[in-house]
Specification:
This protein is an alpha/beta fold. It contains twelve helices and 13 strands. Helix 5 packs across helix 6. The two termini are 32 Å apart.
């Protein structure tokens, strides 16, 4: 049972949480900073049960969204809206450097700047998708890739993050979105969520197909969500000169970089963690149904089925899973 350790802390009873690909990477040993025995998880909806003496915006009994990024709010990075690089004790710490949200209670540092009230009438599942996957897709993918109206956008990987990228990219009215994956089921879901064209890279050549679709020009923006050297190298070949490559995924091992694939074509490459500065904007978009976030949740589990939830998410291709929702009675609530 966690307790308040710092004056800015809050202890929150977790009503609903989910699993991220980074949780799976931790279990595979790809994130060595995580100590043995760490409680994983960095996304939650819950109720505040205890607050520190300096907490002002959050009160006991409040229902809140717990962001994947903890924001000290005072360091240079946070002041510049780069809280993922927080040097004041925040950043990605939940389920990474301190115990996370895959438990019935969690201690949340910097509660005033790292939690958000749940708007009236917005379901837990809809809000839960704003804890990580939607701001990651929006900030590290769409904004970093500088997607503009009438752009042709390629999304490599039609998993949860790739689908989320498609959902938020549609808001900017691109000319077309091309989804690339090896799984026909996921490509079918990508189509349902707004992809205009799908390419099974195990059957057809993505480069040849993209060249055909764009009359040899390549795409304006490619967003790579898989996290493999092969897919990153593919991404560099799909972008037109002076285009953008946004790499959301992380690698568990060192990756050789073929800069000759993009340097001479003036392609801008961006990487990085989510900063969660877009959370208030996304809350408004979800609340107004401009983003139907609950549709990203395909499987629901109670606390006792946590290991089953991990297995389902880890074998998403077998279960046709995108995001899972885990909680007690809250997990059975219908989305509104």
């Amino acid at each position: 049972m966690p307790t308040v350790l710092e004056p800015s802390d809050a202890v929150i009873k977790v009503d609903l949480t989910t699993i991220c690909d980074s949780d799976l990477r931790i279990l595979r040993g790809d994130v060595p900073a995580v100590a043995a025995g760490r409680i994983l998880g960095h996304e939650a909806i819950g109720t505040v049960t205890e607050i520190g003496s300096r907490v002002r915006r959050v009160a006991v009994g409040d229902r809140v969204l717990v962001s994947c990024i903890s924001v000290c709010g005072t360091c240079q990075s946070c002041q510049r809206y780069h809280a993922g690089q927080c040097s004041g004790g925040g950043g990605w710490i939940l389920g990474h450097l301190i115990d996370g949200t895959h438990a019935e209670y969690v201690r949340v540092p910097f509660a005033d700047t790292s939690t958000y009230p749940i708007p009236e009438g917005v379901s837990d599942e809809r809000m839960l998708m704003i804890a990580d996957i939607l701001p990651t897709a929006y900030e590290a993918g769409v904004l970093s890739g500088t997607v503009h109206p009438l752009d042709v956008v390629a999304v490599i990987g039609a998993g949860p993050v790739g689908i989320a990228v498609i959902v938020v990219a549609k808001l900017l009215n691109p000319q077309s979105i091309i989804a690339i994956d090896v799984d026909d089921n996921r490509l079918t879901m990508a189509k349902a969520f707004g992809a205009d064209v799908t390419i099974n890279s195990g059957v057809a050549s993505p480069l040849q197909e993209v060249q055909r679709i764009t009359n040899g020009d390549g795409v304006h923006v490619v967003i790579e969500t898989v996290g493999s050297d092969k897919m990153f190298q593919l991404a560099t070949t799909l972008v037109r000169p002076v285009g953008h490559l946004a790499k959301i995924s992380s690698h568990g091992t060192p990756t050789p970089v073929r800069s000759d694939n993009y340097w001479n074509r003036a392609i801008r490459v961006t990487t990085g963690l989510v900063d969660a500065f877009s959370t208030p904007t996304l809350i408004r978009l979800v609340s107004s149904d401009q983003i139907r976030a609950h549709e990203l949740v395909t499987h629901r589990f109670v606390w006792d089925d946590m290991l089953k939830a991990y297995d389902t998410f880890d074998n998403a291709d077998l279960h046709r899973a995108l995001k899972v929702a885990i909680g007690g009675a809250t997990s059975a609530r219908a989305s509104v």
